[in-house]
UniProtKB/TrEMBL annotation:
Alphabetical keyword list: Repeat, Signal, TPR repeat
Signal peptide: 1-26
PANTHER family found in the cross-reference section: TETRATRICOPEPTIDE REPEAT PROTEIN 6, UDP-N-ACETYLGLUCOSAMINE--PEPTIDE N-ACETYLGLUCOSAMINYLTRANSFERASE SPINDLY-RELATED
TPR repeats: 88-121, 122-155
UniProt KW Repeat keyword: yes
Protein name: Tetratricopeptide repeat protein
Cross-referenced InterPro entries: TPR-like_helical_dom_sf, TPR_rpt, Ycf3
Keyword Transmembrane attributed: no
Amino acid sequence: MKRLLRTITIILLLIVSSSCSSSLQKAEQQFNNGQYEDAISNLNSYLFFNVTDVKALHIRARCYEELGEIEKSKSDYERIISIDKEYAHAYGGLAKLLFEQKDYEKAETMILRAATLNAEDFDIMYLLGRTMLMNGKFKKAEEFLRKAADLNPDYAQVYYYTGMALAYQGDALGCAASFNSYVSREPNNMVGRYNRGFALMNAGFLKWALEDFDAVLAQNPKHTEALAKKQQCLNYLGLASAD
């Protein structure tokens, strides 16, 4: 009788384990498909039996983040850290929340911790570079953004921010090369040209910025942002008003 009960218990545990695994996989698929509320519902059920599963907590934190429920997302990231102090993406997740709240100093502390745990993750290196840029640490920003570019060389935005870091260091040729790399990878060339012009203008390279705004306006003469930025450049240069 005892042997029978033990066998039944083992079978039930295997069924529950299989069901939980299936539930986690389904939740992950729902997250990837943008079905965040459905994913959270499945994860809540899964976490009832697997309270310390950091992967499930991470997916739920990302779901909350996508839904704008920042405090719940933060709570899950903090829960992960209490379980596993070396889970890099929990620190990265908190850093991203802080970055989006414009708390760049605290974001830097968090993302540096993430980078010490995983220096080969693109998302971590990319956010670290952007955070350094916002904190005025331009050389460090360049270093980490170049590392991010090595990890994912086809991601256009990393070259945009590298260009900004170089521009703020006064490296005109370097920033031009980086912005060219950005434009060549940006699927929408007009968006790329406008963004490059905007960055060049902010860095003080007004004549180069004008070339980009003119290129955008040649494609779309009613592009109001490009018109406004072109006018600003002309005003700074003391030239005639834009048409």
